Amino acid sequence: MGTNQLSALPFSVLDLAGVIEGKTIADTFRNSVDLAQHTEELGYQRYWLAEHHNMISVASSATSVLIGHIAGHTKTIRVGSGGIMLPNHSPLIVAEQFGTLATIYPDRIDLGLGRAPGTDQLTAMEIRGERFSAPHHFPQDVQKLQLYLSDYNGDSKVRAIPGEGTNVPIWILGSSTESAHLAASYGLPYAFASHFAPTYFMEAIQIYRQNFRPSATLAKPYVMACINVVAADTDQEAERLSTSLKRLFMGIVTGKRQLLQPPIDNMDGVWSDIEEEAVNQMLAIAFIGGPEKLTAQLQSFVSQTQIDEIMVTSHVYDHKARLHSYELLAKIIKESLQLAVNS
Fold first, then answer.
1. What is residue 135's predicted lDDT score, i.e. its pLDDT?
2. Closest Cα partner for 317 from 7, 3, 20?
3. Which of 150, 166, 336, 337 has the greatest number of C-beta atoms within 10 Å?
4. Three-class SS state of 229
5. Residue 18 in contact with residue 260, Cβ under 8 Å?
């Protein structure tokens, strides 16, 4: 068992650019800029956006465009993808896009890569066309992308301009054990989607650590866990706010997706026993509560998993309450650091 503690952990943001009931997509983008600026001031390390398509509640489909928008409205926080679904794109195009971003915003851009389509199969066919088998080429495409972004491709007939020599940091994203093997063999940092796919989290990070091969960019394994957090001043208020998150996941489970709904007092009569069980399985790694409860839960989670960084997504309906959730989390981590220093 390692010695990683909550107090020593970098903490970051995953923004799905969620669309809220009664608001517009333009409102979503304004809120994302506001959240990025707010979390930058609070000391968050990264602000990542995820590629999704054909989902009414998620507006981050043009991920690289939105990354540029956020980076342009912030100063120091790292901005990146959590992730770009590489089989949807040519590696050269991704290299050019992120090379452009890294040239405009040097030392601030991250490139997280996923294998899934980020959508349903019909939409994936529309995106990929004749490249529908592209997921099978994911390992080779990651290598191509690394080459395009490196200093070593100058003599090639195909070059990423801009992109070449930017060496944008690449992460492998995963929600299963398959990605763990790839991240380990390539010696890349590994970000796990435990915010919606917690089932294989412990197994995947164990595989990653056991099989890790040091690379030119990373000497030892580095695990980031993405988690759901709904923080409020009291446990009761956090539970109320979390009903928006639970209804969002209920839409995923039932196939009846909705915009993010306002919170309700409780979920009684809203879901069936089967739906409740399915949602709770997806939210097995979710932290909902006031400061005292969250401190204990997060300390336990970090001690058990020995992760190196946490990335937080907070599906909270009210924008001010969402900002406050991120404020409380930052305060919890900083206070745990102060306690560690004083002890």
1. 65
2. 20
3. 166
4. strand
5. yes
